[in-house]
Amino acid sequence: MRFSRFLVHTTKETPSEATLPSHIYLIRGGFIQSVGGSGLYNFLPLGKKVLDRVERVVKEELDRAGCQEVSLSFVTPASLWQESGRFEKYGKELLRFKDRKENDFILGPTHEEMMVALVRQSVKSYKQLPLNLYQINLKFRDELRPRFGLMRGREFLMKDGYSFHTSIEDMQREFALMETTYKKIFTRLGLDFRVVEADSGAIGGSGSKEFMVLADSGEDTIVVCDGCEYGANIEAAVRRERACEAEAPEAAFAKFYTPDVKTIDELSAFFKVDPYYLVKTVAMRALYDEGRSEVVLFALRGSDELQEVKACNAVDANDLIEITEEELQEIGLVPGFMGPRVVPDGVRVVLDETLKEASSMICGSNEKDYHLVGVDLKDAKTEYFDLVAVQEGDLCAHCGRLLRYTKGIEVGHIFQLGTRYSDPLGCNFLDENGKSVPMVMGTYGIGVSRLLAAIIEQHHDDSGCIWTKESAPFDRIWSNKRFVDADPAAYTVFAA
Ligand SMILES: [Zn+2]
Questions:
Q1: Distance from the CA of 310 to the center of ligand 1, in angstroms?
Q2: Do 155 and 140 form a contact (C-beta atoms < 8 A)?
Q3: Which residues, including other chains, have CB under 8 Å from residue 286's CB and lie 6 or more apart?
Q4: Among 304, 389, 311, residue whose Cα is nearest residue 348
Q5: pTM beyond 0.90
Q6: Which of 25, 328, 408, 476 has its CB 3.0 to 4.6 Å from that of 464, i.e. a possible disulfide?
Q7: pLDDT at 283 (0 to 100)
């Protein structure tokens, strides 16, 4: 087709709500069109070409890895979500509606229930497993504040895959295969990315990994090592344990008068002791199901900062909220003088794991104007978890080089699900002994439309979009009366 016949609707105006290069250039270059500024977008011919090419790369690599493509009904009966318990729990981002017969339906933001329903109808025996099914389909999430164009729209194109297995070991084999496959996909798309651990993982390995495209405009802060491949979300990052060059304070266990000495800095100056040997105690209220809550004291070294997501996971709470000074005093805790050693009844104590072997520590006494010195936390009958927020300059646990922060755009997520959905939804198979057991699942997502934004966040100049080789809308262009291979930079569509 002649370019003159091609619908390329470029505009000079920068959309008022657009702040990111990808949002501005995709609209100004005529790739997408905003539908009433409501987080919905039409793909114009140029944008659709790019979307199809990105989709093709995703599909080719998945098919090569033995995954099978299906297409699930876009509208989901609410009954499936009621079976899994998510219908009530999911917030307002879930679009719920009724049909003319007053039956409840939803537009799926994800399709675990639907895929489980498909498999439980068609798979009965261990002989039919393993199975990895995926679709590339529209999803809807009723975002309160849709923004950044394709990065956080309400409607988006997603690849969602689900695998079904007879054992955890087999699911973990597939999980590793999907990690390799995703790396191939993002490499083919010409992206600079990192695979990051997305939760701390109870048994060393991570059960959840995210694929982050490195870009200054990324919404997520990630911790990366330049010495090795290590990367993690800030709430999952781990480090080599810090050492302290300063001498430990020598003192026998005693209560010490410390009038008005409240902060770590004041305490450090008062005792002339490195904060490494002080205990920082943070009181939070942990919220659980059915309105239940409890007060938890999280204690860590004075030189460290509390990572609240880690803290929340440590007590298995839904959320952590701050506690007012008045509330603390009612419980019998004194702000500035709190400590984990002897605590009022009903207060739970969780210690950071670096305090497990700690001795000669100084901590609050839970009594106004007094601290305890010579505290040994070795024998404390308490719970230890990693509670620490990794800082830039901490050392990599794997190779010992410096860790640093960077920004990333999440474009993929792989997750070891286990039986979280197959159990409540009764997705069982008959094992070799004829026993009915729930299938073990993994789930694997890629934000396909978001990838367009991620490519441009990483590849653009002052004139607009620069597509990578496998995402460019055209491979060859007509130039000097013949077709020539085009440099991807030539696909910059000027918005002027
Ligand atoms: Zn490293």
A1: 21
A2: yes
A3: 293, 294, 295, 296, 312, 315, 317, 319, 320, 348
A4: 311
A5: no
A6: 25
A7: 96
User: Which one, of 143, 58, 221, 150, lies nearest residue 457 by Cα?
Assistant: 150
What's the rounded Cα separation, in Å, for the pair 245 and 480? Answer: 70
Position of tokens 């950071």?
A: 352
Ligand 1 centroid distance, CA of 230 (Å): 5
Dist. CA 392 → ligand 1 center (Å): 13
Instruction: Using pLDDT thresholds of 50, 70 and 90, give the confidence band for residue 203.
Output: very low
Q: Kindly give the distance from the C-alpha atom of residue 160 to the centroid of ligand 1, in angstroms, as a whole number.
A: 31
- pLDDT of residue 127 exceeding 90, the answer is yes
227 Cα: distance to centroid of ligand 1 (angstroms): 5
Q: Taking the domains of the chain in order of start, what are their residue ranges?
A: 21-236+406-453, 254-385
Kind of pairing between the strands at 348-352 and 383-385: parallel
Give residue 456 CA to ligand 1 midpoint distance, Å: 28
Q: How many angstroms separate the alpha carbon of residue 166 from the centre of ligand 1?
A: 35
Encoded amino acid at 445, one letter = G
More confident call, 37 vs 473: 473
Residue 380 — very low, low, confident or very high, per pLDDT cuts 50/70/90?
A: low
The C-alpha atoms of residue 387 and residue 301 are separated, in whole angstroms, by 10
How far apart, in whole angstroms, are the C-alpha atoms of residue 469 and residue 92? Answer: 39
Q: 309 alpha carbon to ligand 1 midpoint, in Å?
A: 23
Report the alpha-carbon angle 468-472-474, nearest 5. 145
Ligand 1 centre and the CA of 214: distance in Å?
A: 17
For residue 292, give both structure tokens: 């239940």
- Reported as a pLDDT band with limits 50, 70 and 90, residue 206 is low
Q: 321 CA distance to ligand 1 centroid (A)?
A: 34
Q: How far is the CA of 240 from the centre of ligand 1 (A)?
A: 10
- The verdict on domain 254-385 having CATH code 1.20.1740.10 is no
Alpha-carbon distances, residue 65 vs 133, 178, 180 (angstroms): 11, 8, 9
Query: Fold identical between 21-236+406-453 and 254-385?
Result: no
Annotation: CATH topology of 21-236+406-453:
BirA Bifunctional Protein; domain 2 (3.30.930)
CB within 8 Å of 480: residues ≥ 6 apart = none
